[in-house]
Design brief:
alpha+beta; FAD/NAD(P)-binding domain; 11 helices; about 35% helix; disordered N terminus; binds flavin-adenine dinucleotide; monooxygenase activity; NAD(P)-binding protein
């Protein structure tokens, strides 16, 4: 029999004793910090190792759709995210001259969470770091896994700083190029380049940018997303060679040239691009078949299912993974069975997100200037129904039935 106890850090939270006492999380990105917070809130002693030397994050803004906000709510940080972000409830599609095509209201969310809340990546990172630390996790920067031996009863880990420790479970949220995935599954599931890349930059928010606006152009796509009352971010997706290596000093000019055919708002923004702060990201995907674990070690988030960003669901999937992982590990059964349950629960949902995101990316990038009118007609006819379908799926609960002896925070 397991005994109930009151977890000291959260006196109002009653949790069951977990079969897992301690966990190593590899990677202090969005999913890793989310997992540290979720596991810590269940009473697990968590160490997080992050290869980067400090907690600074590169990046621009990030949209958190309603399902992600539900996961952030479980981690106790919904209000913090809403306080710094920009909630919005619709997506507007226009052509590259700024002529309106269609507006789709967004039906994600609940009474408690808005359909979307976009915020600066640095803010999301700071908030998740706080949640992980408050849940008792230790976060060590500049360190990674040097060696790892799973003997069935636990995992012995040697770190790159020479320390050694033993864990009940090891969780890899080490991103799209995951070394842990390679260690578990070899090189069969390396990232696959989509053929497209995105340029992004934070800019002052014009008053009209109160929701996502997507401008469809000639084999390219430009978007603006509000991040706060003061800021928004601009994104521009284009076909780029896989081996493109552009100099950051040239980013402004390269982006200006790519935006050359656009009129309206995008043309105005093109004239005010800053010299610094432009980020270039090739878009790749990871397709790791389930199960995502070997023994007591599992990979999750981008390491297992990195997706094109068109649905703004990658971080959402990583945060949902984190919550489901903690739920499953709280069950009174062998760790390996719980890890198998995680990928079984998550595979279909993450695959749906990958497939839909990929489909949107490829379709949008195939539109030429000549085909824009036909594309606009199709979008008007089909998009509202397609968006409603995927949002209904994403609105479904992502947590499984809780076992009777685990009380949710
Ligand atoms: C252009 C673009 C736009 C996007 N926009 C959105 C959006 O609007 N909304 C959304 O929900 N998602 C978005 N995403 C996706 C989202 O950023 C990712 O899905 C999310 O960050 C995945 O979280 P993760 O924790 O799995 O990986 P990451 O956040 O990448 O974290 C991985 C961490 O592991 C660390 N690491 C790597 N190797 C090691 C190692 N050996 N040892 C220790 N640590 C290691 C890395 O330094 C990093 O900190 C976007 C992605 C792209 C490319």
């Amino acid at each position: 029999m397991r005994s109930r106890h009151i977890f000291r850090a959260f006196p109002d939270v009653e949790v069951a004793m977990m079969p897992v006492r301690n966990a190593l999380v590899v990677g202090a990105g969005i999913g890793g910090l989310g997992a540290a917070a979720a596991l810590g809130r269940h009473g697990v002693d968590v160490e997080v190792v992050e290869v980067r030397p400090d907690s600074r994050v590169v990046g621009v803004g990030i949209n958190q759709p309603g399902n992600s906000l539900r996961a952030l709510d479980v981690l106790g940080v919904l209000e913090e995210c809403l306080a710094v972000g920009y909630p919005y409830d619709r997506n507007e599609h226009l052509d590259w001259q700024g002529r309106p095509i269609v507006v789709t209201p967004c039906s994600l969310g609940t009474d408690r969470v808005p359909p979307n809340n976009a915020l600066a990546r640095a803010d999301l990172h700071r908030i998740l770091l706080g949640a992980a630390r408050r849940a008792g996790a230790r976060i060590v920067h500049g360190v990674s896994v040097a060696e790892l031996v799973d003997d069935g009863d636990g995992v012995s880990v040697t770190f790159t700083d020479g320390r050694a420790a033993r864990f009940d479970v090891v969780v890899g949220f080490d991103g799209i190029r995951s070394p842990l995935r390679r260690r578990l599954f070899g090189d069969a599931y390396e990232p696959e380049y989509t053929g497209f890349a995105v340029w992004r930059v934070t800019l002052p928010r014009p008053a009209e940018v109160t929701h996502t606006m997507l401008f469809h152009g000639d084999r390219s796509n430009t978007g603006v997303i509000p991040l706060s009352r003061e800021e928004m971010y601009l994104l521009h997706v284009t076909a780029e060679p896989e081996d493109a290596r552009y100099e950051p000093a040239d980013f402004r000019e390269l982006l200006r040239r790519r935006l050359a055919g656009y009129g309206g708002l995008v043309a105005e923004l093109r004239e005010d691009l800053p010299l610094e702060g432009i980020v270039y990201s090739p878009l790749s995907e990871v397709h790791l078949p389930a199960p995502w674990h070997v023994g007591r070690v599992i990979v999750l988030g981008d390491a297992a299912h990195a997706s094109a960003p068109n649905l703004t669901q990658g971080a959402a999937m990583a945060l949902e993974d984190a919550v489901v992982l903690a739920d499953e590990l709280a069950r009174d059964r062998p760790v390996e069975d719980s890890l198998a349950a995680v990928s079984a629960a998550r595979f279909g949902r993450t695959k749906l997100v990958q497939d839909v995101s990929h489909g949107i990316l490829v379709t949008e990038m195939s539109i030429t200037a000549d085909g824009l009118e036909e594309f606009a007609m199709n979008l008007r006819e089909h998009l509202p129904g397609q968006a409603a379908f995927i949002e209904a799926e994403l609105n479904k609960p992502f947590r499984l039935e809780r076992s009777a002896d685990v009380v949710a925070p």
